[in-house]
């Protein structure tokens, strides 16, 4: 007879196992962290974790078709979707999405919520618009068109950004709910695949603004905006402002949650998370996946912070481990 598993009855630590490989795919936002963890994990255990940054939509599709051991998505699946696909879902870490821009002679650009909504609704078309000048006194902004760079693929980063925009801008936008690939309704638009693709376009093209996970902006040496948050304060992107968003998050069934536009004086307004997806029926493979993420939760916090990812609160990590016990580690006591 099976009893409900507990943390005491579960063994997550991986022993050295040369030649074993684990395959994952999905979110490009979380890719730098998973790949950094995988490098250290391989040194310690000999277990190789391969991860493809193909976007959240492809990650969901690939794990749903059992093409990989785990998928990763920045747009969490709802409980009924998890049940339909027979998937287990849990969060990995939180991240900040930022607006990066290319104006060589303009540093420290500050955007109000009204300005952001104007840009993404198409009402603001030029860099020297009064709403942008209003929060940037003393800066000389060029009279050139704003070129908005978005994701071409089904993207969890897009889902996070549109979640923020829907809350902040309300009726101004052509879309009314978060989406991995919305109809932007903008004429001044260019699309690129992956966070790396968006960052590359911004890096090369004068007059652009687009959204990327913060690590990509830092690695690419991109300028990023200061943003007005829900409390009306102007905040710079930082690990601390990303972590502030986690204080008020409600994690529902299947760890479903929305981290964007949270309250707090120092809270960054565009914070998202990445969730791992595992096929429930593949228990032996799932043990390998759980062992990897247990290592990440136990030994990977400093690497996460180094890359500007906000580690999960300890109580959330413990709930994740209990979920692993219930769903993966079933013992006959």
From TrEMBL:
Residues 1-19 form the signal peptide. This is Phosphate-binding protein. It comes from Aquifex aeolicus. One of its GO terms (cellular component) is ATP-binding cassette (ABC) transporter complex. Gene3D superfamilies: Periplasmic binding protein-like II. Belongs to the PstS family. Part of the ABC transporter complex PstSACB involved in phosphate import. PANTHER family: PHOSPHATE-BINDING PROTEIN PSTS. GO terms for molecular function: phosphate ion binding.
